Amino acid sequence: MRLEYRRALITGAGQGIGRACAEVFAERGADLVLLDRNPETLEIAVKAAMDRGSKVTALTLDLTDLESLEGKLDQACRDLPIDILVNNAGFDRPGTSARLEMSGFSEVLGIHLSVPLFLIKLFLPTMKARKWGRIINVSSIYGLIGAKAEVAYSTAKAGLIGLTKSIAREAGPRGVTVNAVAAGLTRTPTIEKMMAEKYKQDIIIETPLGRMAEPEEIARVIAFLASEDASYITAAVIPVSGGWGI
Length: 246
Ligand SMILES: NC(=O)c1ccc[n+]([C@@H]2O[C@H](COP(=O)([O-])OP(=O)(O)OC[C@H]3O[C@@H](n4cnc5c(N)ncnc54)[C@H](O)[C@@H]3O)[C@@H](O)[C@H]2O)c1
Prior knowledge:
Elements: E1 7-11, H1 16-27, E2 31-36, H2 39-51, E3 56-60, H3 66-76, E4 84-87, H4 102-130, E5 133-140, H5 142-145, H6 151-171, E6 176-183, H7 189-194, H8 197-205, H9 215-226, E7 237-240
Parallel strand pairs: 1-2, 1-4, 2-3, 4-5, 5-6, 6-7
Bound molecules: nicotinamide-adenine-dinucleotide.
Nicotinamide-adenine-dinucleotide is lined by residues 12, 14-18, 36-38, 41, 62-64, 88-91, 111, 138, 140, 183, 185-186, 188-191.
């Protein structure tokens, strides 16, 4: 499951699952391009990856600003190609259909669907030309089962599964695998800060393993999908949820 001689781009790498990916990928030998909109957390992630021996390029940017994204990434990725793309960055605008503003719906679809597609359009051609590539999209159990007060988020995460399967069909003949992980409840800073204890407990009760995931537990599955060991896996949606959502 080593990732030597691979260069991975990870979105939302400043904290949570993205930072855990940066650390696990660095431990396994990958060089990294790390993106986040928060310069302080990104700096910590960069240091953590460098301490583990990775060569790191970091870019502070808002991924939803698609117009400026291409130019910034062109510059950062000009010298070396990206072998592995991890579409991880995300945010939520909770609400039932009655409470959700259309603007919030568009924002959530933007970060979870438009940004991954944009990055795929940018990096897939080179992966195809080199006949090797890995794309891993971070979806959610909510993308499989829906969620009453998470209309935008669960719709976006379900769409990301559709995107995964469609791009897998397109890219497979050229040696590029495309997979998704459907993460369960994971102990990240956002979940710790934003989610009421009652909602966490409701999910934990439904989780056979009886606890939240640690970010590294999601990151290790993403790293596996990025590795040579996963060479015959594509278009898969792997639940990493402690059994929640079965
Ligand atoms: N934590 C969970 O329980 C859980 C469960 C299922 C799926 N997920 C998914 O996993 C992914 C990571 O989740 P997390 O809990 O680690 O999130 P998080 O909020 O802890 O971290 C997300 C990171 O993405 C960055 N980011 C967000 N929007 C950005 C933008 N427009 N431009 C640049 N950077 C941006 C943030 O600054 C942050 O560093 C998300 O896609 C999330 O939907 C999380």
